[in-house]
């Protein structure tokens, strides 16, 4: 007699036909749901023995976000997939999440966007990346495009190095020869507890060697990511020349020129955006630290005070306009309509 395990290890066509039969039997109530689930998992495990990876769900949510996950009611299967990710070098919570089965319901191992991008750089994950690309192609062109973009972006991270980087760029109509000697990134905290990231770059611009420091954080009402550096008055050529040299370094490394602002007290600041920070994480010396910083700040939610101020601002804006929406019921035909009327309390 052929057992389920023997059938599971059989040919692909037979396993697929058996899976369809078991699925139909479960849907029609001809077999116990739990027993059917165990049979289906054994058939799936038989395919895994031949193809190395179980079937992962790969698709897009309504928001356009990518979903890559494996689901099973078997705790051992969930633990197995989680351990495979750990063995690749992925970190739980940062690169993937695990939800164990409970009460007969499926558990999941989900790889996050950051995890997929990170795995694209790991030689140990090459087989997994190829499998996900294959699954994405099966799901359609939109899914395949999304997966390809994430993998391509991940592969470019850390593909460059600061040491020995050379480029000629133009800033304010003048050409500058940039040679980067070294660089690193270090997380910090301000006195108020705000997360900061200090990036140091040692570079030689037009023969002048200097160590530059750019401090990134979240600032302003929009909590936007920005980086600040201050030009030095004692640098060769003074503040203006020093600021232009740093702008040349940043443009050479990221392809984007930063803003240069002179304050009323004569201080000159170089201001970078999130786009500059994303450009800097392409360099191996900065990649991991910049990635961790972006993840940490993206997980931080607005404070209660920030939310209250936002709502207050919205309310004051409505009062200032002096309008309110009044529901007017049309009598006679029983129909109703909405019209915009000036608030009589504010128009008097």
Main β sheet profile: 7 strands, antiparallel
Order of helices and strands: HHHEEHEEHHHEEEEEHEEHHHEEH
> Roughly how much helix do the residues carry, as a percent range?
40-55%
* Strand segment tally: 13
As laid out across the biggest beta sheet, the strand order is: 5-6-7-8-9-11-10
Number of helices: 12
Distance between the termini: 92 Å
Beta strand %: 25-35%
Class from helix and strand fractions: alpha+beta
Radius of gyration: 29 Å
What spatial form do the alpha-carbon principal axes imply? elongated
Mean pLDDT score: 80
- The low-pLDDT segments are 1-11, 46-50, 323-348
Briefly characterize the structure:
The protein has 348 residues and is of the alpha+beta class.
Name some characteristics of this structure.
348 residues, alpha+beta, seven-stranded antiparallel β-sheet, four-stranded antiparallel β-sheet, 12 helices, 13 strands
Notes on the protein architecture:
The model is unreliable at 1-11, 46-50 and 323-348 (pLDDT under 50). 23% of the residues are buried. The chain is α+β, with helices and mostly antiparallel strands and 348 residues long. Among the domains are: 166-299, no CATH class; 304-347, no CATH class. The chain has 12 helices and 13 strands. The termini are far apart. Helix content is 43%, strand content 28%. A 7-stranded antiparallel sheet has the order 5-6-7-8-9-11-10. It has a 4-stranded antiparallel sheet with strand order 1-2-4-3.
Q: Topology, pairings included?
A:
Blueprint: H1 4-8, H2 12-27, H3 33-51, E1 57-60, E2 66-72, H4 75-88, E3 96-99, E4 107-111, H5 113-119, H6 126-139, H7 141-156, E5 166-171, E6 174-189, E7 195-205, E8 208-219, E9 224-230, H8 238-254, E10 259-262, E11 268-273, H9 274-280, H10 287-299, H11 304-321, E12 323-329, E13 336-342, H12 344-347
Antiparallel strand pairs: 1-2, 2-4, 3-4, 5-6, 6-7, 7-8, 8-9, 9-11, 10-11, 12-13
């Amino acid at each position: 007699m052929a057992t389920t395990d023997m059938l599971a290890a059989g040919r692909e066509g037979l396993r697929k036909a058996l899976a369809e039969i078991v699925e139909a039997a479960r849907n029609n109530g001809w077999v116990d749901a739990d027993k059917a689930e165990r049979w289906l998992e054994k058939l799936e495990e038989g395919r895994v023995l031949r193809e190395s990876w179980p079937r992962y769900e790969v698709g897009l949510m309504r928001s356009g976000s990518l979903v890559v996950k494996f689901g099973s009611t078997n705790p051992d299967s969930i633990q197995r997939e989680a351990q495979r990710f750990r063995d690749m070098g992925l970190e739980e919570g940062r690169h993937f999440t695990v939800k164990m089965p409970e009460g007969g319901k499926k558990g999941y191992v989900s790889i996050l966007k950051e995890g997929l991008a990170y795995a694209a750089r790991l030689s140990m994950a090459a087989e997994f990346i190829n499998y996900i690309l294959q699954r994405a192609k099966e799901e359609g062109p939109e899914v395949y495009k999304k997966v390809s973009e994430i993998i391509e972006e991940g592969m470019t991270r850390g593909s460059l190095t600061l040491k020995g980087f050379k480029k000629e760029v133009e800033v304010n109509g003048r050409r500058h020869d940039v040679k980067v000697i070294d660089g690193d990134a270090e997380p910090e905290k301000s006195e108020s507890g705000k997360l900061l990231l200090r990036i140091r770059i040692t570079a030689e611009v037009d023969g002048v060697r200097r160590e530059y420091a750019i401090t990134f954080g979240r600032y302003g009402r929009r909590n936007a990511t920005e980086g600040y550096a201050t030009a030095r008055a004692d640098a060769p050529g003074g503040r203006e020349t020093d600021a232009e040299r740093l702008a040349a370094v940043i443009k050479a490394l990221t392809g984007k020129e930063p803003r240069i602002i002179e304050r009323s007290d004569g201080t000159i600041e170089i201001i970078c955006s999130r786009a500059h920070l994303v450009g800097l994480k392409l360099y191996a010396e900065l990649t991991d630290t910049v990635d961790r910083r972006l993840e940490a700040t993206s997980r931080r939610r607005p404070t209660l005070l920030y939310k209250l101020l936002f709502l207050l601002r919205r309310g004051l804006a409505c009062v200032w306009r002096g309008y309110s929406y009044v529901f007017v019921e049309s009598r006679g035909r029983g129909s109703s309509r909405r019209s915009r009327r000036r608030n009589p309390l504010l128009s008097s």
